Amino acid sequence: MPTTTLNDGWAVRDKVSAFAELGGAKAEWVDVTLPHDALFDRPRSEDAPGGAATGYFPSGAFEYRRELVLSNEDRGKLVVLEFDGVYRDAMVYVNGALAGQHAFGYSRFAVRIDPYLRVGEANEIRVTCRAHQDSRWYTGAGIYRDVHLTVKQLVHLAVSSVQVSTLRIDDEAATVEVKAEVANLSNETATVTVASAIRTEGAGVVAQDRSPVTVLPGATAVLRHRVLVEQPALWDVDSPALHTASLTVMHDDIVVDEEEVAFGIRSLDVDSRRGFRLNGQPLKLRGASVHHDNGPLGAVSVRAAEERRVRLLKEAGFNAIRSSHNPASTALLEACDRIGMLVVDEAFDMWTSNKTDFDYASDFSQWWERDLEALVRKDINHPSVIMYSIGNEIPETGTPAGGVWSRRLAEKLRDLDPARPVTNGINGFVSTLDVVIAGMRQAQAQAQSQASPESAGGVNGMMTSVGAMMNQIAASDVVTERTAESFSVLDVAGLNYGDARYEMDKSLFPHRVILGTESFPAQIAAIWELVTANDHVVGDFTWTGWDYLGESGLGSVVYAEGDEPGALSVAQPFPWLTAWCGDIDITGRRRPASYYREIVFGLRTEPYIAVRRPERNGQTPLATPWAWSDVVGSWNWPDRVGETVAVEVYAAADEVELLLNGSSVGRAEVGAEFAFRADFQVAYAPGQLVAVAYAAGTEVGRTDLVSGADRVELELDADRLELDRARRDLAFIDISVTDGEGVAHNGRDREVTVTVTGGDLVALGSAAPATQEGFFGPSRTTFDGRALAIVSPGDADEIQVLVEADGCEPRRLTLRVATNAADAPHAQATFAS
Predict the structure, then answer these.
(1) Is residue 733 a contact partner of residue 721, using CB atoms and an 8 Å limit?
(2) E strands present in 613-687
(3) What percentage of the chain exceeds 90 in pLDDT?
(4) Does the keyword Membrane apply (predicted)?
(5) Residue 661 and residue 707: Cα distance in Å, rounded?
(6) What is the average pLDDT value for the chain, to the nearest integer?
(7) What is the CATH number of domain 713-831?
(8) Which of 17, 273, 445, 725 lies at a 20 to 30 A Cα distance from 548?
(9) Residue 620 forms beta bridges with which residues?
């Protein structure tokens, strides 16, 4: 039996022990299809133990079960379950016996189950897991990534042992090494023949080799084939060419095992003078830090969702993702391979010091080696993965003990995979917290002794200056000295909010290569100027590229009203849900910050118009360092006629002229108040608002916004017309409240109701950062006039989606279901009959 996906046929319930059941406790089993997030449908509440950090979701302990029947022909074979991720403290039982366990919630792990199976009978597989005060963000819980079942002969290719690497590339050919372990679980010495073949799309077999391998009983033997691939198509972000390597194991002329893996042929280089190079070409990393959840789907990693996310991030101008702050799913990496997105895969958010009460730090010293081994086994064949990160904002990195741990982790990764550089997202502020806390206490005591009601800024004052404070501390002598060892063990020095070090480290550490592993969104213009001006700085990763669940309110904007200063905080109260700091919101729609970044990157010549919400006129905005202006790309404010509104125009130009209904409102200098931005105050009137950008007196681009008509209609736009039943495909359907001509009514939100026949409504949600509405009901209120429905195939060959809202004509959408369906153009909505 080949490796198969084992996502169907599972059931889940709250974990109930046998003793609790004897005492009368009960929990009903609910049928589910994996991947599954067991926490996501639970009610949120203001007294949830994780608070804003976990999005006010509750904690929980869960168990999954499934029956598994193997035929008599599988008797005596190796049987393995491979989990791409279970959050967390997974315990795997087979027929009541513990077969394996794994502490970390993000590692891929394999469990051998054949010793506990009864061949020809029904076997119970049970998996228990939990989530409780163990993270700084929303983790979800359960078997939230794919599960695979592998059945092999006693002589076989060891599970996850096939590795393909490019040893050398020149103008004529590439030397590719195929490596694998041949395992022998039998009681006799076995000599097998292993054949390898490299294939490329459209060209068939381009290289092959074969060799005998003798394996002693109970042992493994390493196979290596080095082959020459002539004139290979190289993998890069613009043309992500993939090859496949297949291995066939024959014993006594009988095929006993086969495996095939995808890989890419490409080279990586990095140094302080020439920066980062892919296939010999310099490349700056335009990076997006991304959490693992998929918004309206919760923490699950589904191929269709990961493909869509990677595609939208790339369309927005990013060429790299940093998995924050845990190993990425296999589904995400496969999407990055196919689409052409670079990945910095991050291992841990904590080492030996807890960041939350019950997190992985308690398991780190026992599990870190196995989890790094799992990281490399998962990543090594993915050309998209260009770098490993051993951590994020680890407090120990400012101590000698942290230097020891840094070296251990970095050297372990180099032993496992010498081809990829190692980084670490170090925050000098966090690395010297003992000094920072002592200084803050002293400053607070001094402020209290001198404070007056008029001058006291409290938390608000501290928050508005935290960005500058982080940078100032990062550039201090104490950080230079105390992080020197932790940085010295890295190939690339990752800096979180430390751009003040970029130029100073060029002289202090002339061989140090720097990567901005985290940065404030509003500072991208200044940061990108540093990145492009310094060869030793290879890129920047904003926090964040995609909005996420938990850390609720990290990017919030609040307002002062009258004498009230406003409650500025990076942790907003319930019902806040998302961080609200992503360039792209949780439904996949680009926010104004995304267009600004695209302009700064030099990828967009057309200006972009954003309008501050008119209902906030006269109020003073207070924003965290992770926030963007509270703006919307809309000129549709029918209730604000005659009122003055603030307009921001983003442009790579010297000045911008604004015209309202053909009349000039005036010209404004770009960058006078904020880089790449011109600011206007305009009396709102319906019609057309045009922004014209000028450089050296010549027009270089223009754009416009138009106000909508009075009528209110629904518009639907699906990302595909045809779904593939075989791969648990999903259709993402954008629902908009518009004027019927494509202009969104961002001020006329409606409760929309979605009915699906022939398929399933997987989720229905909006991008609202604060809401008490869930994602699983048939109805949901739009946010800024928009919502998202996610639909999966059922048993029918056609899916009908009906969307209704008060005061709107119903809309219907038809989706086709096939096997191995190709991507289709956007669907067109039709009026319901």
Answers:
(1) no
(2) 620-623, 631-632, 644-650, 655-660, 663-669, 677-683
(3) 88
(4) no
(5) 11
(6) 93
(7) 2.60.40.10
(8) 725
(9) 560
Which is more confident, 454 or 782? 782
pLDDT of residue 618: 81
Label each residue of 499-542 as H, E or C: HHHCCHHHHHCCCCCEEEEEECHHHHHHHHHHHHHCCCEEEEEE
CA–CA gap between residue 128 and residue 436 (Å, rounded): 41
Helix (H) or strand (E) holding 415: helix 400-416
Q: Is the pLDDT of residue 175 over 90?
A: yes
Q: Please report which residue ranges of 465-511 form alpha helices under DSSP H.
A: 466-474, 477-482, 484-488, 504-508
Residues near 342 by beta carbon (within 8 Å), at least 6 away in sequence: 237, 278, 285, 319, 320, 321, 336, 384, 386
In a 3-state reduction of DSSP, which class is residue 624?
coil
For residue 473, pLDDT over 70 is answered with: yes
Please name the residue ranges forming H helices in 741-812.
none
* The overall pTM is greater than 0.85: yes
Assigned token pair, 717: 């736009």
Q: Does domain 605-706 have CATH number 2.60.40.10?
A: yes
Query: Both tokens of residue 540?
Result: 């920047």
The domain 290-431+467-547: what is its CATH number? 3.20.20.80
Q: How far apart are CA 185 and CA 142, in angstroms?
A: 32
Q: Say if residues 250 and 256 touch (Cβ distance below 8 Å).
A: yes
Residue bearing tokens 């929990």 = 27
4-152 classified as CATH 1.10.530.10: no
Q: Provide the pLDDT confidence category of residue 44 given band limits of 50, 70 and 90.
A: very high
Q: Of 308, 300, 310, 360, whose CA–CA distance to 333 is shortest?
A: 310
**β-pairing verdict for 722-724 and 751-757:** unpaired
Bridging pattern class, strands 4-5 and 147-152: antiparallel
Decide yes or no: CATH 2.60.40.10 for domain 157-263: yes
Instruction: Report residue 331 as tokens.
Output: 């589904």
pLDDT in tens, 207-225: 999 999 999 999 999 999 9
Q: Would you say 320 and 344 are in contact if contact means Cβ atoms under 8 Å apart?
A: yes
**645: phi > 0 → left, psi -120 to 50 → alpha, else beta; which?**
beta
What's the whole-number mean pLDDT along residues 421-448? Answer: 81
pLDDT single digits (tens) 610-622: 999 999 988 889 8
The answer to whether residue 456 scores a pLDDT higher than 90 is no
3-state secondary structure (DSSP) of residue 680 = strand
Cα 784 to Cα 650: distance, rounded to the nearest angstrom: 21
Inter-residue contact 384 to 342 (CB < 8 Å): yes
29: left (phi over 0), alpha (psi -120 to 50) or beta: beta
Q: Is 273 exposed, middle or buried (0-12, 13-18, 19+ CB in 10 A)?
A: exposed
The reported pLDDT for the residue numbered 569 is 83
SS3 category, 407:
helix
Best CA proximity match to 58, nearest among 574, 420, 461, 666: 574
Q: Which candidate, 298, 366, 289, 425, places its Cα nearest to that of 104?
A: 366
Task: Give which of 533, 491, 527 is closest to 286, Cα–Cα.
Answer: 527
Strands 342-346, 830-831: pairing kind = unpaired
pLDDT at 288 over 70: yes
What residue spans define the domains of the chain?
4-152, 157-263, 290-431+467-547, 605-706, 713-831
What confidence score (pLDDT) does residue 611 get? 97
Token pair listed for 61: 């302990």
Q: What is the mean pLDDT of residues 691-712?
A: 96
Indicate if 605-706 has the same CATH topology as 157-263.
Answer: yes
Beta strands in 410-492 (DSSP E): 422-426
Residue 454 pLDDT > 90: no
Distance CA 104, CA 364 (A): 9
